[in-house]
Design brief:
This protein has helices at about 5-10, 20-35, 65-70, 120-130, 135-140, 195-205, 210-245, 255-280, 290-355, 370-390; strands spanning about 45-55, 60, 110-115, 150, 155-160, 175-180, 185-190. It has about 400 residues and is of the alpha+beta class. The protein folds into three domains: about 5-35, no CATH class; about 45-325, CorA soluble domain-like (Beta Polymerase, domain 2); about 355-395.
Length: about 400
């Protein structure tokens, strides 16, 4: 019996009220159980957005129901055997269904599916229905990856990195792409603005009209959004340099350390991304047409320039930090030199005063009234002689 049931039973009056008390206790126990029940977890939506693109201004948005309905069968089965939409797949908010998704569709049409990388249903769909290889499936859904490109027969696996607008340098987003002649699958765990740029271009009828052109557009938008971040780093370095070199308070170097860390985090991904795009550009497969290859070449040039600017920023930051360390070392040496001079001047004087301070018989001048004045004068002469010797040797 639960605690709430026991309390309700104790509150029931006598034998006559036993049945009523039991009913009240049961209702109270059910209410308590409902209040303490854990909330039902909402599954992650696997599809962010998807489209079938045939020609300019001929694109159809896909829904997850459309994709599942078109791929609930083996690709080798007759397309007519695909299950029809049930009542749950009817129109919503006046929108019509998109066509059933088919990876074996002719190249007159191509499809783009952007999936939520954290959705288990999306991974199951890619494995069981589309039939992606294990290495492709692992690369598309692994938690972390560096920019790279791999080719498997006529399929391309591409990992890229980017920065959303106004995001921190250490807040980079990752996008993985799997490209076939008529299918482009992209996955990400977070919002990627470059992918939304591709979606807007498709919805406005501006293309691209092939999976390779879509890959080139995503790469271009990723690089375009990195450029303002590199310019911001250059401005920040100018401010830090002005503060360290020209301000009177030079003790604070924390900002420079944090700045160098941000530059290194950005460069960690930009350098391999440049190599990946260079390898992709040099590939002579089916993915890119001549016009698309020229577009990718311009993107690669822009990324190379950003890497060079980032390397210059890193070198400037290193030189600034080295200069700051040299200045601090010089300041420390100057202070130690001053202390050494004081020690060199007063050490002989301390020896003399210590010698005359012994309390034993036979000390000269013990009975003379001018002995103390003579001793002080001798100490001044000795100190002046030491200082004169240091100046003659150009130590001071």
């Amino acid at each position: 019996m639960t605690l709430s049931t026991e309390r309700a039973t104790k509150q029931a009056p006598g034998k006559a009220g036993g049945q009523g008390g039991s009913k009240a206790a049961g209702q109270l126990a059910e209410t308590t159980a409902e209040q303490r029940s854990e909330p039902v977890s909402v599954p992650l939506e696997p599809l962010v957005f998807g489209y079938v693109i045939a020609a300019p201004n001929q694109q159809t948005a896909l829904r997850w129901q459309d994709i599942r309905a078109g791929l609930q069968k083996s690709p080798y089965q007759d397309h007519a055997q695909a299950p029809e939409h049930g009542p749950e797949h009817g129109q919503e908010h006046g929108q019509e269904h998109g066509p059933a998704y088919d990876p074996n569709q002719s190249q007159e049409h191509w499809q783009w599916v952007h999936l939520n990388r954290e959705s288990p249903e999306a991974r199951d769909w890619l494995q069981a229905v589309v039939g992606a290889a294990d290495v492709i499936d692992t690369a598309l859904f692994q938690p972390d990856s560096r920019p790279r490109i791999s080719r498997y027969d006529n399929q391309y696996l591409i990992n890229l990195r980017g920065i959303n607008a106004l995001a921190a340098v250490d807040d980079m987003v990752s996008i993985r792409l799997w490209a076939t002649p008529n299918l482009l699958v992209t996955t990400s765990a977070r919002r990627v603005v470059a992918v939304e740029d591709l979606r807007d271009a498709i919805e406005n009828g501006l293309g691209p009209f092939s999976s390779g052109a879509a890959v080139a557009l995503i790469a271009e938008r990723l690089v375009a959004r990195i450029a303002p971040v590199v310019e911001t780093l250059q401005d920040q370095l100018d401010t830090i340099e002005e503060h360290i070199l020209h301000q009177s308070d030079k003790r604070d170097t924390t900002s420079l350390v944090l700045f160098r860390r941000a530059v290194l985090q950005l460069r960690r991904y930009l350098s391999p991304q440049r190599d990946a795009l260079a390898e992709l550009h040099n590939d002579r497969g089916w993915l890119f047409s001549d016009d698309t290859r020229h577009q990718l070449h311009d993107t690669l040039d822009g990324l190379t320039r950003l890497n060079e600017d980032l390397d210059l920023v890193r070198e400037r930051a290193m030189l600034l930090q080295e200069q700051r360390l040299i200045e601090r070392a010089d300041a420390t040496n100057d202070r130690l030199f001053i202390l050494a001079l004081f020690s060199a001047v007063f050490l002989p004087l301390s020896i003399i005063t210590g010698l005359f301070g012994v309390n034993i018989g036979g000390m000269p001048g013990v009975e003379s009234p001018v002995a103390f004045a003579v001793l002080c004068g001798a100490l001044v002469v000795i100190a002046a002689g030491i200082v004169w010797a240091f100046r003659r040797m150009k130590w001071i």
